[in-house]
Amino acid sequence: MLLFFILGLLVHFVFFGSIFDIYFTSPLVHGMTPQFTPLPPPAKRLVLFVADGLRADTLYELDENGNPRAPFIRNIIMHEGSWGISHTRVPTESRPGHVALIAGFYEDVSAVAKGWKENPVGFDSLVNESKYTWSWGSPDILTMFAKGVGGDHIYTYSYDAESEDFGAHDVTKLDTWVFDNVKEFFHAARNNRSLFSKVNEEKIVFFLHLLGIDTNGHAHRPTSREYKDNVKVVDDGIKEIVSMLEHFYGNDGKTAFIFTSDHGMTDWGFHGAGHPSETLTPFVTWGAGIKYPQKVSAQKFDDADVAPLMASLIGVPFPLNSVGILPVDYLNNTDLFKAESMFTNAIKRKKIIEMRKHFKHNLFFFRLLSESKQLNILRKARSYIKQRKYDEAVSLCKELIHLALKGLSYYHTYDRFFLGINVVLGFVGWTSYAALLIIKSHSNLTRGVSKEVKKPSHLLPCSFIAIGVLVAFFLLIQDCPWTYYVYCLLPMPIWYAVLREFQVIQDFVISLLTFPPSQLAGYLFVFTLGIEVLVLSFFYRYMLTAGLTAFACWPFITQLWTRAKSISLSWIFFSLLLAVFPLMPVVGRKPDIFLVMGAGLLVLLLSLSVVTSLIKRKDHFINEELLLHLFQMLSIVLSMCVVYTTHDSLRKKQGLPLFNQIISWITLGKRAIKLNKLMLLYQVIIFGPLLSFLKKLFIN
Predict the structure, then answer these.
(1) Is the peptide bond before 42 cis (omega within 30 degrees of 0)?
(2) Which domains are present in the chain?
(3) CA–CA separation, 415 vs 435, rounded Å?
(4) From CA 291, how far away is CA 288, in angstroms rounded?
(5) Which of 109, 365, 614, 624 measures 20 to 30 Å from 354, CA to CA?
(6) For 633-680, how does the pLDDT look when each residue is reduced to its tens digit (9 = 90+)?
(7) CA-to-CA distance for 289 and 47, rounded, in angstroms?
(8) Among candidates 134, 147, 127, which has minimal Cα distance to 198?
(9) Which residues, in sequence order, are bridge partners of residue 137?
(10) Tens of pLDDT, residues 359-398
(11) Distance between CA atoms of 539 and 530, rounded to whole angstroms?
């Protein structure tokens, strides 16, 4: 039994690790050369403002008095630049959002192991391609674009991580700190000849990361006065920075500005998922190379990919792994420049798919985009540019880019189905083997079976060895990593062990056929329905209500209702009470501390009634049981105090008390221990009816 337990842990550990090879593979491709547009860019410098956690609706909507919440940005929208709504992807976290903005590719999901704080694989970005970059803001964001970058052309200025306190009195200081330090930087540049020379170079970037809005959203919710006032603080700060830069550079018209956000936030103050409040963010751009606003009856633009737009504005190479499409409709430049920029963008996508195809060693290639078709499209596009048919050239380049993106997705997910099939085979095999061992050990299926030892056949092991050799050869010719051998070969011994128990399988099938068909079908229907309800509850919460309602009816189909009506009524009441909660909203706009305290008091009253009944018991009383209930009541009282004092401290903007932090960490450790017990209870609940069914079926 110990060996079986160890093997089970090994199997689950291996297949759990397969998740990272199936879904968390890095999208990065290395070994490419930079590509840039050969024509002069419209801007010498780019200023990127990223308001962390800013929702699109909060920026664009009017305040209670009908006035713009961000007057300066609204003036830009009306008179100076282009604007829209940008779309982020899951996970809507700060690090993935900034990677998409500045590096141009969707997050390397292998960074989940780093808590979305840093990338285990180095990547190229606009910051790296620039001649100089100066950045101000949070240390979590700035350092990831400077880490591992060769040279000394990236400069970061950040505050201490301790300043990012959700419970601080005024977190707008995170944004005012950035604005003040930018002003001091340019003031110092006037008196520093070396620095003055650098900030007047071409292809430079100023990156301002503004964390105050996100911090206020977490602490006070996006609908709070603090969150909305922080938007006004950011708007005023941007206005001052833009004015200072125009004065510093003598209004030369060579500065491009972009204002956007990395992600939004739910009404409850969270982000990370795919709700529109988290994925819809503002996008405003103005300055050199950007179209002025135009009044039209209707317009339709595709999503703007920010990284290639920024690279095109200042004339730096597109980031090597950027998968974005240059939004030429935002550019205020010649048709030749747009066509050449799009041509460069198309060549970039072609290089990425070629490198991906080269490194993967796939047996089957992406048929929609052969090498000859790529070359024909590029030749045709170049011919159109020479003939000054710029619109046709842009259309052809877009077609090639879309096909290249499909091919990139094809090669990136090439092994997903193959590995998934092997993992499923392994799990199904292990589950079957465990079930066979249970049936063999706890049933009378083997009764009456001859105990004569049969001479083992060599056909079965030889067949599995041959299949294993073929699988290994298949992986070898594809130059697969060693982990693929583990995932693909591990199911072999598992299914060999399953098929060795052929006699048990045969007896099990015969026993099932002797069971009443209607009752057997009823059991199978209930098991299948229960599993489907659990699966559907991940997508539709009200399915939990249906399941709990079914639980409430359980006493009526058993003898419990006639034997213990009081217990049955309690079961029905609490099952229906729990069934109400999945129908309630997941989150609300404001925390209701009275509801939390009321729930705590209700639990205390129920616990008190249990303790009273224990004290009145006439039989042998176990003191440890009473102490356990009293300790649980004390834990509830302590939790209520921690919740109330935390809410009061945050409301007064006094931060989180140290005592509350200590109690919270202790509670977390205790909950982790309880989680293991709950998992055991869950297994008993799930497999209990099945074991009961097997007991009725096989055991005398």
Answers:
(1) no
(2) 31-333 (3.40.720.10), 418-447+456-517 (no CATH)
(3) 30
(4) 9
(5) 109
(6) 888 888 888 888 888 887 777 777 888 888 888 777 766 555 554 444
(7) 13
(8) 134
(9) 158
(10) 554 545 556 667 788 889 999 999 999 999 999 999 999 9
(11) 15
